[in-house]
Amino acid sequence: MINLYGQELSKLEALMVERGQKKYRATQLFTWIYEKKASSFDEMSDVSKVFREELNRDFCLNLPIVYKKQESKDGTIKLLLELEDGNKIETALMPYRYGNAICVSSQVGCNMACAFCASGLLKKKRNLEVHEIVGQVIVMNKILEEKGEHVSHIVVMGTGEPFDNYENVMDFIRIVNHPKALAIGARHISVSTCGLVPGIRKYAEEGLQTNLAISLHAPNDEIRNKIMPISKGYKMEELMDAVKYYEKTAGRRVTFEYIMLKDVNDSLECAKELVKLIKGTLAYVNLIPYNPVDENSFVRSPDKAVHEFFSYLMKHGVNTTVRKEFGNDIDAACGQLRAKEHYEKQKH
After folding, report:
1. Predicted pLDDT of residue 296
2. Contact at 8 Å (CB) between 130 and 175?
3. Residue 340 phi, psi (nearest 5)
4. Are residues 24 and 71 in the same domain?
5. Is residue 207 located within the same domain as residue 228?
6. Which of 45, 60, 75 is the last residue of a domain?
7. N or C: which end of the chain has fewer CB within 10 A?
8. Of residues 8, 13, 90, 161, which has the active-site annotation?
9. Are 72 and 180 contained in the same domain?
């Protein structure tokens, strides 16, 4: 069966025409699904009974099932969702003063194997389908509706490498951004990559006004090679060339994500190298206090080191922020809840 949450409008129009329906049927279905929040085809009162029968036979509106839910005292919500094939994925909601930001996964597991990250503890099983990515937002919206709220910002920064599931992630963006779907503004949507250079260059040519974040986490190849295997395939020089191409082609600046790891990448010498590395770009840096993972030995940088690093970058003209921390009292880091569930099952 075809899940309609996975159909971008132009593809749904083509599908309707292919089935002998008028093109407008696609917009009609979008209205029912997203604006009127219909959970079944039988609710669609202005759709003929014959067509509803066809919809019930060949299509579905299935959503991931909430397998486990954690809620932090700061309002962060972490969901472990079960897919139709039994696989489980994570999604998290972070409440900011400007709105509710959801962090969605793009794959079941991850093959990027970043040494500090919980997402890579369980290897990639498969890419998520479009409807499974959209479904994460719909399920979270249903939870937020109880509070009279909704998702306002999206980051594709959960488990998986978005550019390793490129086409599905692009369709996901087009759906959630569409005014007749979730109508989330392009500037409120961010995609994060660990540095797949071909994906960055391709993304630059999409004509989207969405945001791009790059998980950098090191100022040179030597450190990056130790903590991020992707850097052995795409050296820093190649990555920075792609960043400059993106800025020139898309007309958008890049955010560099930089997790602060004690005695690994948090020295003032690293700060100096980082300033030199990104000089000549429009990029800014987002320093991330590390959320420790039991399965590795990395330690978060002391607050003093983070402050000194931040001050050095700012003093030398690099626009820098320190990310607000969420969910310290729950399994907040990407992949933690899923890995915990997996290992507990193995024990039993």
Report:
1. 83
2. yes
3. -60, -45
4. no
5. yes
6. 60
7. C
8. 90
9. yes
- Do 251 and 283 lie in one domain? The reply is yes
Contact status, residue 5 vs residue 136, Cβ threshold 8 Å: no
Nearest to 90 by CA among 121, 68, 117, 75: 68
Q: Are 74 and 95 in contact (CB under 8 A)?
A: yes
Q: Which of 103, 114, 194, 334 is catalytic?
A: 334
Distance, in Å, from the CA atom of 213 to the CA atom of 285, rounded to the nearest integer, reads 10
Query: What local confidence, expressed as pLDDT, does residue 342 receive?
Result: 47
Judge whether 90 counts as a catalytic residue.
yes
For residues 163 and 96, membership in a common domain is answered with yes
* 110 classed as catalytic: no
- pLDDT, tens only, 200-226: 999 999 999 999 999 999 999 999 999
Residue 217 near residue 265 (C-beta atoms within 8 A): yes
Q: Could you tell me the CA-to-CA distances from 39 to 79, 177, 183, 300 in Å, in that order?
A: 20, 20, 19, 44
Could you tell me the pTM of the whole model?
Answer: 0.92
Task: Find the Cα–Cα–Cα–Cα dihedral 256, 260, 266, 268, rounded to 10°.
Answer: 50
- CATH code for the domain of 44: 1.10.150.530
The whole-number pLDDT of residue 293 equals: 83
- pLDDT confidence of residue 56: 96
Residue 24: give the domain boundaries.
2-60
- Helix (H) or strand (E) segment spanning residue 242: helix 236-250
State the amino acid at position 313 in one-letter form: L
